[in-house]
């Protein structure tokens, strides 16, 4: 790692920062604690980046322009609460597109690494889905933190076999608890 490299917290969107996990961004609502989590990351000097699969776009169910409007609304709500998202990376594809960015494939993180010169081993992925978010963290060599909001409880239960080879570094009740763990971890190391 060179001195000019930055580190990041990569946030999953649905089920992590808000919403109910599997819907598209039209029915997304930020969790009340999400802005505190993002603001703490801002204050720590780590980048706050959203990485999100939006296959509804690729399926033709949801125009990309509407996705962009919704996403800028989400970022605006966070800004109003003093929380800043440095960047958002979205995979709009369906699996049959054969892209390299649909989580757990590493393309979204690779784009961020190019744009921000990020050190991935010093970075974190926070998400509610083991088979995408935690496997992505493992593939990239980032630290994966599972949250129990969204589909997180199912990830630790009936779907644990879909990511059996992966161990998160921490399991948090929600994204705020996950970020608080990161800040303690950063202080200790
Ligand atoms: Mg999710
Ligand atoms: Zn993609």
Structure characterization notes:
The chain is built from seven helices and six strands. The mean pLDDT is 94. Strands 3-2-1-4-5-6 form a six-stranded parallel sheet, sandwiched between helices. With 189 residues, it is α/β, with parallel strands linked by helices. The longest helix has 17 residues, at 64-80. The protein has helices at residues 34-44, 55-58, 64-80, 107-116, 130-140, 152-156, 175-188; strands spanning 8-11, 47-53, 87-91, 124-127, 143-147, 170-172. α1 (34-44) packs parallel to α7. The chain is 38% helix and 15% strand. It has one domain (8-188): HAD superfamily/HAD-like (Rossmann fold, 3-Layer(aba) Sandwich). α1 (34-44) links the parallel β1 and β2 (47-53).
Task: List descriptors.
single chain; 189 residues; alpha/beta; Rossmann fold; six-stranded parallel sheet; 6 strands; 38% helix; globular; binds magnesium ion; binds zinc ion
* Bound ligands, named by name, code or SMILES: magnesium ion, zinc ion
Q: Between the first and last Cα atoms, what is the distance in angstroms?
A: 16 Å
Mean pLDDT: 94
How many strands, what sense, and barrel or not for the largest sheet?
A: 6 strands, parallel
| CATH topology (fold) name | Rossmann fold
Unreliable spans: none
How helix-rich are the residues, as a percent range?
A: 25-40%
CATH homologous superfamily title: HAD superfamily/HAD-like
Q: Quick one: how many beta strands?
A: 6
| Rg over C-alpha atoms, rounded to the nearest angstrom | 15 Å
How many domains, in number, for the residues?
Answer: 1
**In CATH, what is the class?**
Alpha Beta
Structural class: alpha/beta
N-to-C SSE string, H for helix and E for strand: EHEHHEHEHEHEH
Strand % is: 5-15%
The number of helices is: 7
Strand order of the largest sheet: 3-2-1-4-5-6
CATH architecture identity: 3-Layer(aba) Sandwich
